Structure formats: structure tokens, C-alpha cells
Amino acid sequence: ALGRSRPAPEGFSLEELFLPDANPGFQRRGGPFTWSRFFLAGDRFLKAWEGRGPGRLRRHALRKAEQWLLRRTRYSNGLGAIFPSMMFAVMALEALGYAADHPDRIEAESQLEKLVCGCGGHFHIQPCLSPVRDTATAAFSLGEAGASPSALRRAAEWLIRREVRRKGDWAVRRPGLEPSGWYFEFANEYYPGIDDTALVLLALGHVRGSDRARQRACEARALNWLVHMQSRDGGWAAFDAAGDFKALGGIPFAEENALLDPTCPDITGRVLEALCARGVDPKGDTVRRGVEYLLRAQEQDGSWYGRWGVNYIYGTFLALRGLRAAGQGGREAHILRAGEWLRSIQNADGGWGESCASYQHRAFTPAPSTPSQTAWALLGLLAAGDAYSISVQKGVEYLLETQRDGGAWHEDAATGTGFPKVLYLIHHLYRDAYPLLALATFLKARGTAREDYE
Description:
With 454 residues, the chain is mainly alpha-helical. The chain has helices at residues 35-50, 55-71, 83-95, 103-113, 131-144, 153-161, 194-204, 212-228, 265-277, 285-297, 312-325, 333-344, 357-361, 371-383, 390-402, 430-446, 450-453, and strands spanning 116-119, 122-125, 416-419, 423-425. The protein starts with 34 loop residues before the first helix and ends with a helix.
């Protein structure tokens, strides 16, 4: 909007960004009317009006946008606490004329610099930090593996202190709902995550803080928030009661629906597991609608799409755990189909792996086995009632054989998803926490003590 630019250094150009004979403009696809054509026409109209419209209105709009941006840098580790928006916040403040020594610009730049990691003579930039999610994932896995609640007391108290108590952008659609929930990062009060909140509630089922009354009140608020963040279609989205105005996906720069926060099977499955674990009636309306959503979302081959983890293995394991928690039995046709699909994609070494290219192909794309994806497949099969098949046995053996002497597993692949076909993530804890959870779940399903299995 401000039209700022930077000259390229002498001797450099941007020609290398374009293939020979490539057209850098937005491509018009489809028939005479598409949403993409509509937005492109609207863009041309607004650009023409921009130079002729009243300057007062434009200045007012810029002030409103600036105030919106600054408010959302409060109570967070930078705007949105994730690299793209943090980077754009620094650029926006500079374009708005904030001096290099202005407190807001200093804060924005310092938060961005915290994402830089140096290692072995090189550096890389993390997309964000994930301490709340990592703590919840670890605590839940350890709790399921039999760690005592007292051993995890400090983790419980750390999580409880980070409960959201301010209304964020989600309150636009849920204005009367009491704030609660948890975010992904160290601080991001405007954007608690529905998936993160469900995971923390699962973890708090295993861990106990020193103030039990405070913990119970915190859990009750979070549970109420989670129930009321259900979307109209019965599923749950990542940060909001999902907007379903799919036409926004026609905006030419809307990378893979990045402007939308759609409901998805993986989060819905996790939420159903958390709700049922915390005593929500499996036969009640909330759970029933969630189950119906998952049944509608199942793919023809029996799998489920995974929006926030790669990909169909991730979506299928979480959908199956949610359905199992909601009381769905292992003899249901949709459960049997999902189990058969998981067994059909197992690798010859006994593990499971899936490529990020599955998003591009919109179909499962095999890859070498990884500990995290093997654990997800095992958790899915166990949720489907399969604890004794050859597939499960070989999957468990793969995890045991690939575990290192120190107890951890090695994994280089990116098995987390930021934006499909755009950004993928390496969650370093996944390679250890999920195999632990899978092995613990396997032993429980078999009714076998660790020493007996060894």
C-alpha cells in the first residue's frame, strides 16, 4: 500500500527468478467467470480508484491496519509468533517510518532474530518455536508410558501458567465465549490453537500440578472453549470456528487456501479423543457431529487427509483414535477399511513412510520409513483394534531395531506440515515421542508387561 521498494545492488537483477519465456503475471484459468477472474478485476478497479479516491479515507485505512498490527505484537513473540508474519511486521514498521531505535521496531527485530540458529559454521532460521506443543506431546507420551503424575508436576504447572485468558481473533465468531486454550509457542495470546489445546488437555490427564483446584478450573475452561469452537460442519479447524467462504481461495496470491482455516480430519480426531478422555458424552451432540464429519471426510481408499502432518498416515491415525475414543468399534466398515489401507502401504522393512509429494499428487506417495510415521501407522492400527497382525508385529520390530543406544531415534525427513505444497516442518520431538507412545499403546493393547515382551 505504501509503495516502498529497494534497489537491487549494482550488478544484480531479478532475471534469475524467471524461467525462459515465463509470464510472471497471474494466470487466468477456467471459464468466463471464476473467483480468480473476479478478484483480478476487482484489483484493477481498486488500483485505479486508489489514485483518485479521497486521501482521508486512505490515511484512515492505513492507521487502522497499523493499529491492528501493533495490537497483535502484544502478548506474543512477535506478530503471530511465526516467521512470515514476523518478517512482514519488520518490513511494515520500516515502511511506516518507525526509526531503527523505536521500541516497537526493536522488539519486532529481536523476536525475529530469536528464530536464527547457528550450528556447525552455518545458520538457519526456524519458522517458529514450539515449546507448548512439545511439552504437551512429551508429557502425554510419558504419561501413557507409565510415568507417575508427580514426576511430571513441573510440566503441568508450566502448562497451566500458559493458559490463554485474553480474547483473540477467534472471538469475532465466538464473542460470548470465555477465553481459554493454549498456543503453539512461548507466547501467542491472540491465536490459541485448537489442536494444541486438545493435546494439552490430553497431557493434563496424566500430570498433576501442586494446586489441584486451579488445575481443575483451568481444564474446565479449556474443555468448554474446545467444545464451543466446533464448526458448523461438525469438524474443528486450527485456530477458529472455520470460515467456509471458499471463494477466498480464488484470490491469486492465496497460497493453497492459506487465507482460510478449514476444518480437517486430523484436528477433529484429536479433539474427539481429548473430549471423550475428559468425560464428554460420546453419545452427545458434540461428539456425534464430530464422528459424522470424519465419516464424510474419509477418502475412498479408507484413509483420511492430514492437514498438519505428512499426510494420509497422519490424518488416518488421528481420525482412528478419535473414532475409537467416541466408541466406534473395530468391526465398523470404515474402521476396517482404514486398517486395511494402513497395512497395504507398509514398507518391506516393517516401517511406514510417506513423501510430502502426496500433497502435490493428492494421493498417498510412498517414501522410506521414518520413526514418526511408523509410530503413527501403529497407533492407527491399534486404535482400529489390530494388536496381533503381522503388520503390527513388524512395525514394532522396526521401531525396536532402529532405536539408538541412548533411547532416541534418528529422522531427517520433514513429517510436519505448515502449508501443503508450500512449507514443511521438522518437529524434532516427533521422532522420539510418538514411537514411545506407540510402543506403550502396543503393550497396553496386548496386555503385556515390558519385561515379558523383551
